[in-house]
Amino acid sequence: MILIVDDDVAIRTSLSLLLKKAGFSVKGAASPTETFEVLQLEVPQLILLDLNFSIETSGVEGMALLRRIRQFDPNIPVILITGWGSIELAVQGMKEGARDFITKPWNNEHLVQSIHTLLNLTEPAPPSSTRRQLDQKYQLDNIVGRDPRLLDVLETVGRVAPTDAPVLITGESGTGKELIAEAIHLNSRRKRAPFVKVNLGGISSTLFESELFGHVRGAFTDAKTDRTGRFELAHRGTIFLDEIGELDLSSQVKLLRVLQERSFEPLGSSKSRTVDVRVICATNRNLEEMVAQGTFREDLYYRINLITVKLPTLRERPDDIPLLAEFFINNLKTIYQRPGLRLSPTASRWLKTLPLPGNIRQLKNTVERTVLLSGQDELDVADFQKNITSPVSTAARSLPEVGTLTLEEMEYQMIRRAMEFHQNKVSKVARSLGITRFALYRRLEKYGIAYDTTDV
After folding, report:
1. Which residues carry this modification: 4-aspartylphosphate (predicted)?
2. Mind listing the pLDDT tens digit for each residue in 144-188?
3. Domain 142-312 in this protein, CATH class
4. CATH topology classification for 315-396
5. Beta bridge partners of residue 325, listed in sequence order
6. Contacts (Cβ under 8 Å, ≥6 apart) of 215
């Protein structure tokens, strides 16, 4: 049973008709007193709670009722109903334990999806599965490993994939966030629709609207033709917003509105377009700290992380390192036409001792570089050591310890530090690094680092 708590009889009636049509049994309550009269007789599966009653618009009464419901039974999922102008109030409700919020006027399909999602997520978690059992139940191509931490992640992937829950994937750079996002899509009901990847760190604030929402011809000087945005390309499918922590505050507002209203206007157009997408975000930054610092909107944070998946680092699952190395070598056998390639048992054990701060990406680069530079089919410790070490001069003793970073990762870190120091001014960064602006632009594009487009 779904309990609708709203003092407006028209809203209760409208929601009741919608939910009954969707197959739910429904009861209504017009006040906190009626709400607890219902709760004493039957515990609902889910509560839709309006935050304002009668002429009171501060939300105080609704928040007080939410707290009472949480004290009565903290396991009942609550979806808050509020107006766009009361988003801050809804965010406060999320802190108090609400599971989601919708704004008026709501989208019927989105509301029903949200209810189904929360009901699915409140079902008891299945017992832990082995890797073989997970592979039999789900499509987990290219995700390698048997560590319990990884298996917990894959279990969560399989559990949330059939829902439309927004997922936030966190973890250090190189831990495989994109692969997890793809796995969620491939195991969802949207798997036959597009999976659109967007690196938000590589899109400047001036191009954000055009890239994500498209533009019409003549919207700006270089808009010679209409352009379809990434959200529209992902219609009925999944959009993966990588590096969401890199978005500036003005772009965050625009993204939040699309996630809330499920509609947008292409740049230069006055016609709204409706879009149905499942949103998966990823970041290697601490969004909670950014919220506290005021650099990431709290309302957007609560909108994108109904489910959070934190990926373990490679150093937390060292037994998976040989499995990953073998996986990369098997792929390279075909690419470089060397069918005899293999990893020696000694090298397999040795790889587990490497710190690998760049995680899976660094391991992949290390293996491929060793394959390219070694003339032997069997790769031993010496082959790897020869290709990841070099003579250390006195002048280089302040650099990171040999083997802890690849050259590519050192370059990436140095560019990021220079960009932060010079406040994203490309000309200054290029001079400080001793390269041309054109060479810096190539590297910025390569690493997906945002830059100030006014400094060109």
Report:
1. 50
2. 999 999 999 999 999 999 988 899 999 998 899 999 999 999 999
3. alpha beta
4. Helicase, Ruva Protein; domain 3 (1.10.8)
5. none
6. 209, 223, 226, 227, 229, 266, 267, 268, 269
